[in-house]
Amino acid sequence: MRKVINLAALDNVRFACRSTKLIISQRKGKDIYQDYILIVLMNKTNGREVVHPLTSFIYDNWKRKGYNTQIARAKHLIAFLNHIFFDYKSVLKINSLQELTINQGVHFLETKAKNGRLESTINAYESTLTYFYLYLAKKGLLKKYDYSSLKRRAYTAEGRQKGICSIFKGEVSIVNKKSRAPEKIRRLADEHIIPFIATALEVAPDIALGIYICFFGGLRGSEVVSIKRSEIKTKGVKGEHGLILKLSTDVKYAKGSGNRVKTPGEQGVQAYQDLLGMLYQFHLMYFQEPKDGSDSLLIDKRGNAMQYQTFRNRFNKVKDTFINQLASSNNVTDKIYAMNYLSLPWNSHIGRGTYSNLVAEQCNNLLELMQARRDSSASSALPYLAGSTEIILRVNNHLERMYEERENGE
């Protein structure tokens, strides 16, 4: 274990986290992979990396949790390790995890707070560090603390383990309260959905299909950039009757936390007139398979898998153009809508909100809406497609009426 806790403070070395794929089983002749998080020591000079034994900390505590939980905890830990061993080594003067005290943890947390991190973020760091101190103490690696004393400090109630609280409670003096977030626009007016997609075709054709999928499939922006071409099933020869998407996170090509699928599974995308089939064929024709082997549906200007930040920037370009078009219209109603769309913040999540509104009007109960949105709940164990065919028929009827009203209004 001495290799785990002794570390020379070298300027060219940093902790980092990486992901790898391991084959865990086979299904129908295909390998089934699972993503694993690794904590590594990285030599910044030559790029070499070695897996660090502290990787076991993640799996001792969150083995049965999802990838997003594991990567978040790993990032908390490496930020702390880099802080005490490298970034502030001249201040903290710590050479080994054996020398670790509560004070170093407080220094890390207060530094984060001074740098503007919100209270909720500090609390997340505190939670991970509390588990980390307990992990080290349980293995007998802390000189100044034994496991029993830290355990008493960490657990609430008299001898009853109701849950772990922070061992740094009351120690951090800087608190940045989150200001109340302004209200957001959660949906586009029905009559603006198709014009908005048309605007995307004009100014950002590389994400026009992705925007359609947000509005008529209810996907989050992070999920749209995670779609793989080989995981798309078409209804009809060219997708003219809809699409079925199989959604999952591929950590190899998801460079940021934004490229994550919150709820893996299948999601249907409804066809509106012949627009979906046209957009799908247009996209496949003009935006070829990515060069990086990611199989991503959306690609950036370099031909690689599009990242969420790029998708967001492109969406904002469409948004700004669309609002300007409304503001420049001779129609008074359009001008009022432009002012409304400018008055409050909104982003690509408005597609999911608009979809939810369309579906909610047609659903008989909350369960149907949860299924249509792929919301996590006790009902998620039910077959996803149960009852969804009827929902799609009802929503399509609504879309038909919306189309007819739009045509009659022109």
What does this structure look like?
This protein has 410 residues and is mostly helical. It has 2 domains: 2-154, no CATH class; 190-409, Intergrase catalytic core (hpI Integrase, Chain A), CATH 1.10.443.10. It has 16 helices and 6 strands. It has helices at residues 2-5, 55-62, 67-87, 89-92, 102-114, 119-138, 147-154, 190-203, 208-217, 221-224, 275-286, 308-328, 332-343, 349-360, 366-373, 388-409; strands spanning 13-27, 30-43, 49-51, 232-234, 243-247, 265-269. The strands form 2 sheets. A 3-stranded antiparallel sheet has the order 1-2-3. Strands 4-5-6 form a 3-stranded antiparallel sheet. Helix 3 crosses helix 6, helix 8 runs antiparallel to helix 9 (208-217) and helix 9 (208-217) runs parallel beside helix 14 (349-360). Mean pLDDT is 82; it is low at 1-6, 365-370 and 377-392. InterPro entries: DNA_brk_join_enz, Integrase-like_cat_sf. It comes from Bacillus tropicus. This is Glycogen branching protein. One of its GO terms (biological process) is DNA recombination. Keywords: DNA recombination.
